[in-house]
Amino acid sequence: MRARILSLAASMLLATSLACAKTEFTPDDSIAEANMAVQRQVFDAVAAGNLDAWEALIGPGYVFHGPSGQALDWAATRALVTGYLTAFPDLSFSVDLQTANDEYSIVRVTATGTNTGELMGAPATGKSISASMMNIMRIADGKIIGEWENSDELGMMGQLGLIPQQ
User: Fold this and answer.
1) Which SS3 state, helix, strand or coil, does residue 137 take?
2) What is the enclosing helix (H) or strand (E) of 84?
3) For residue 102, is it within any domain?
4) Rounded to the nearest 5 degrees, what angle is found at the Cα of 34, between the Cα atoms of 147 and 93?
5) pTM of the entire predicted model
6) What is the mean pLDDT of the chain?
7) What's the total number of domains in the chain?
8) Residue 155 in 3-state DSSP?
9) Cα distances (angstroms) measured from residue 70 to each of 66, 138, 144
10) Domain CATH for 27
11) Distance separating alpha carbons of residues 157 and 67, to the nearest angstrom
């Protein structure tokens, strides 16, 4: 129940933010579309396990700000995502909502996968997950220079049986 409330709250926050942003987002449509395409390419590359394709989209000074508040450079980000791909080799993403301007692309996705590998020291559970994520990328000249992600890690851990679900 807590995960559903958190997921709903996150969805409402994103919807409110996007609604407010509509008045401020007056992008060059072609750049906004290109920025959304870059963001989708990242999710496609991760789902395919092709982190080299993602790396080709990384710009100088890239920093990833994750759900735990950490700030990671590209090498640490790649290691983090590699861990998730080891835990969920069939990881996939569906885009629920996306918007952009000439500097940022924002997306809400649903990630799904089956836990067949170790996850943060926990053995594989064989269970499937479905978790929502919100991702913001700052993009300049077609390269990602900053990324902020918020995901329902609590819900994911509950679905895997690694923490009690309510």
Assistant:
1) strand
2) helix 74-87
3) yes
4) 55
5) 0.81
6) 88
7) 1
8) helix
9) 5, 17, 18
10) 3.10.450.50
11) 14
Q: Calculate ∠ Cα 38-27-106, nearest 5°.
A: 45
Q: Which domain holds residue 144?
A: 2-159
- Domain assignment present for residue 115? The answer is yes
From the list 105, 135, 92, the residue with the least C-alpha distance to 35 is 105
Query: What would the pLDDT profile of 19-53 be if each residue is shown by its tens digit?
Result: 444 445 445 789 999 999 999 999 999 999 999 99
- Decide if 165 is inside a domain: no
DSSP 5-59: HHHHHHHHHHHHHHHHHHHH----HHHHHHHHHHHHHHHHHHHTT-HHHHHTTEE
> CA-to-CA distance for 21 and 110, rounded, in angstroms?
22
Are the CB atoms for 153 and 111 separated by under 8 Å?
no
Q: What was the pLDDT predicted at 7?
A: 46
Please state, as a whole number, how many other Cβ atoms lie within 10 Å of the Cβ of residue 29.
11
Q: Is residue 164 in a domain?
A: no
Q: Which two tokens stand for residue 59?
A: 């710009």
Convert the pLDDT of each residue in 65-106 to its tens digit. 998 888 999 999 999 999 999 999 999 999 999 999 999 999
CB atoms under 10 Å from CB of 75, counted, come to 9
Output the pLDDT for position 50. 98
